[in-house]
Amino acid sequence: MTTRRDFLKISGSAGALLATVPWFSAFSDSNNTIGEKARIGVIGPGSRGQFLMSFMVKNPKVEIVAICDDYQPSIDEALKLTPKAKVYTDYRKLLEDKDVDGVVVTVPLNMHHEIVIASFEAGKHVFCEKALGITPAECLNMYDTHKRTGKVFFVGQQRLFCDRYIEAMEMVHAGTFGEIEGIRTYWFRNGDWRRPVPSPELERKINWRLYKEYSRGLMTELACHQLQIGTWALKSIPNKIMGHGAITYWKDGREVYDNISTIYVFDNGVKMTFESVISNKFYGLEEQILGNKGTVELEKGKYFYETAQPAPGFLQLVNDVENKLFDAIPFAGTSWAPETANENKGDYITGKRPKTDGTSVLLEAFAEAVITEKQPGNIAEEGYYASVLCLLGHQAIEDGVMLDFPEEYKLDYLNHKRAVTTEV
Q: Which among 168, 189, 295, 340 has the fewest CB atoms less than 10 Å away?
């Protein structure tokens, strides 16, 4: 597990990162919060909730004081991680608990809005798993309520706190890879995305991701992570969205697509794509940033230059002789021939193979923010736009049209400005 301390050893200091990652301001007071605790309630400690809890229980600045679920097997498993936590079956009762400073919300997507709004109104700080809401209007209401109440608001976009992503973005913004000409993202799996159901009446409760009443499928569960990479890399929000989706393989009664493709167009014409197929896993998942001088593959944690480094003097001499003798590149190629994608092994962004995705550091940052009651810069906005972009992609697929980014869902952030309404 990578911790904030490990990360700072790689990247220098939190202060040096604030230009590229303003949300790292969460750690500005970390030396002064030693001995203090963020008292957290977990609403929805299912598989994802328990995954997040597994990090929080290792943090000396976190105490999980309460858990809430109406599904007993989840409660039983969660109590193995935090046996002293109070147990609730109604989230409203948990929100009345004065021992709870902040909540981690990991319930099905259609319940996010109701619970997050209630949490803010109850005076609690909020960490909400992505995507934020099931509609852009819900996302905007959650963001506005955060601003109005002044409570801390984090969204589960862990790549914002991942060392290789941060270092790669520093390289991108410094022009290391030239002008960014395209961003390709994809997430391929081979599986039905189903979970075992002990009894038929629990089908929609357990497999909620497969039904439109509760979920937006691959767009909200997978694309939400990857689309945020484009806004971070380009420091801009796309303004046109199009896409297509279908059920091509898993024809088992599900309502959400198992095969989708979307395109997001920025003002300068650069495009970002997201694609997901869950009946073939060969290519796995990746976010590729394509510059005219080089490429970054963030999941692999590697970067590649377009032009190979010059060959050593002796090899260059051999190449020159080959050219003079044959006046063409030999069948087998020469050592100075441009590298192909198969031959270019690239370099690791952090100097080593990736081992983490930033989740532990993200949760440490939330704990710090709960203790200090200070909202880190930009993280709510990045989480908001990641959610809205995936939901607009879903809408473009459903409506079969190319959408312009609706004015009413723009914030004062990056290249977007909030629409101003004038009362008559």
A: 340
In CATH, the number for domain 4-160+357-375 is 3.40.50.720
> Which token pair is 125?
């700080």
Q: Tell me the one-letter amino acid at 88.
A: Y
Phi and psi at residue 174, to the nearest 5°: -80, -5
Contacts with 118 (C-beta within 8 Å, 6 or more apart), sequence order: 91, 92, 95
Class of domain 163-309+339-356+387-409: alpha beta
**Taking the domains of the chain in order of start, what are their residue ranges?**
4-160+357-375, 163-309+339-356+387-409
Strand partners, 324: none
Predicted pLDDT of residue 322: 41
pTM for the full predicted model: 0.89
**DSSP H helices in 96-197:** 112-121, 136-149, 163-173
Question: Is-contact 160 358, C-beta < 8 A?
Answer: yes
- The yes-or-no verdict on residue 193 having pLDDT over 50 is yes
Q: Which SS3 state, helix, strand or coil, does residue 275 take?
A: strand
CA angle 405/409/413 to nearest 5° reads 90
- How far apart are alpha carbons 39 and 407 in whole angstroms? 38
Helices 379-399/224-234 angle, 10° precision: 120
| 102-105/38-43 β-pairing | parallel
Joined together, the tokens standing for residue 287 give 């976010």
Q: What is the number of other CB atoms lying within 10 angstroms of the CB of residue 126?
A: 28
Q: Evaluate if residue 246 carries a pLDDT over 60.
A: yes
User: Is residue 35 classed as helix, strand or coil in its secondary structure?
Assistant: coil
